[in-house]
């Protein structure tokens, strides 16, 4: 397969709960500092963003609880699956994230882990937690869209 035929972005993991539990205010793409066996494990499609979160510590951004299981053909020096991993961002982006987190109720949530042009990337979202009534409203909207789509498809078939 030629380089031009490959997709520009290959998704490894999604954090589906993030968009349900949080209102995403803005997104930032960050690189990850990984070891060789972690990259191989990601290329095999193994990772979990379920409990992951990002923080700004001093002048560095770090993602925690990102689970990348050990590479099966790796050796005994495989790194810890949930170790803290440094994020590669410009200084201005880190300062912007730090300012966003300083506001009450805001946090940094990993949304998607993917490969872009051969590099592992993490899509981060500056998010504010949703209240229960906001979640109910979103579920009601989704159900209404589903009903409209179902009715539209039924009309196309001649039912």
Automatic annotation (TrEMBL):
Key words, A-Z: Cytoplasm, RNA-binding
SUPFAM superfamilies in UniProt: Small protein B (SmpB) (SSF74982)
Secreted keyword on record: no
Gene Ontology MF, one: RNA binding
Pfam families (alphabetical): SmpB (PF01668)
Bias kind Basic and acidic residues: ranges: 137-159
Localization per Swiss-Prot or TrEMBL: Cytoplasm
UniProt similarity note: Belongs to the SmpB family.
Known function: Required for rescue of stalled ribosomes mediated by trans-translation. Binds to transfer-messenger RNA (tmRNA), required for stable association of tmRNA with ribosomes. tmRNA and SmpB together mimic tRNA shape, replacing the anticodon stem-loop with SmpB. tmRNA is encoded by the ssrA gene; the 2 termini fold to resemble tRNA(Ala) and it encodes a 'tag peptide', a short internal open reading frame. During trans-translation Ala-aminoacylated tmRNA acts like a tRNA, entering the A-site of stalled ribosomes, displacing the stalled mRNA.
Stated name of the protein: SsrA-binding protein
Organism: Eiseniibacteriota bacterium
Protein encoded by which gene: smpB
């Amino acid at each position: 397969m030629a380089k031009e035929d490959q997709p520009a972005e290959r998704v490894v993991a999604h954090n589906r709960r993030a968009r349900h539990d949080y209102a995403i205010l803005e997104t930032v793409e960050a690189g990850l500092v990984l070891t060789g066996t972690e990259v191989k494990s990601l290329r095999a499609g193994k990772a979990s963003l379920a409990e992951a979160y990002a923080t700004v510590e001093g002048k560095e951004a770090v993602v925690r609880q990102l689970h990348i299981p050990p590479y099966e053909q790796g050796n005994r020096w495989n790194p810890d699956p949930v170790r803290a991993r440094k994020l590669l961002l410009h200084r201005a982006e880190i300062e912007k994230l730090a300012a966003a987190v300083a506001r009450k109720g805001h946090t940094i949530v990993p949304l998607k882990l993917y490969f872009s042009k051969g590099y592992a990337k993490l899509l981060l979202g500056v998010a504010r937690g949703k209240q229960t009534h906001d979640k109910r409203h979103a579920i009601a909207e989704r159900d209404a869209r589903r009903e409209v789509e179902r009715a539209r498809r039924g009309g196309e078939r001649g039912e």
